[in-house]
């Protein structure tokens, strides 16, 4: 498995002969695109249509819950099975700065794949597939730039699956209570924007 991981990495990793425009595109994908996801979540919570607001807010909280589970699982795996990044062992070419911490599973992969799977399961298939494509581009970019192995991204996908399954199972026990608590807190903190009609109640 490690041999396959290494071969795939060397095949995907950018070299000094790679087109500069492709490296620049990969840097944007690796560092900036993932910032779209929190923006989408905030917009869904604050400005969804009135007839969809309850289901959209449930989606937001279930997705965040799934992400929290996924982060916990990812952290545990990282402690139990630390794995060096390619540049930490002198393999390939590194095109962006990164600390030489454990690489498996990928934090970026865990984040984007959890969101894509959550939207696929609890929103619409098409929205999940769009996020999945974005996730695959981010995964490619971080391998291309030399800071992750291919299996790190597969690990992020698997941890995202586990996070979503755990959230789905746990939601029946605490979902309604969590929604009520967060709604109450939101209405207190956003009382002025809600009263002015800037955000949904």
Automatic annotation (TrEMBL):
Q: Look up keyword Transmembrane and say if it applies.
A: yes
Q: Which reaction does it catalyse?
A: di-trans,octa-cis-undecaprenyl diphosphate + H2O = di-trans,octa-cis-undecaprenyl phosphate + phosphate + H(+)
Q: What is its EC number?
A: 3.6.1.27
Example GO molecular function:
undecaprenyl-diphosphatase activity
Looking at the UniProt entry, the stretches that span the membrane are: 21-47, 59-82, 129-147, 153-174
Query: Which residues does the UniProt record annotate as the domain Phosphatidic acid phosphatase type 2/haloperoxidase?
Result: 59-168
Keyword flag Transmembrane helix: yes
Keyword terms, alphabetized: Hydrolase, Membrane, Transmembrane, Transmembrane helix
What the entry lists under InterPro entries is as follows:
PAP2/HPO, PAP2/HPO_sf, UPP_Pase
Q: SMART domains in the record, alphabetically?
A: acidPPc
The identity of this protein, by name, is undecaprenyl-diphosphate phosphatase
Designated gene of the protein: ybjG
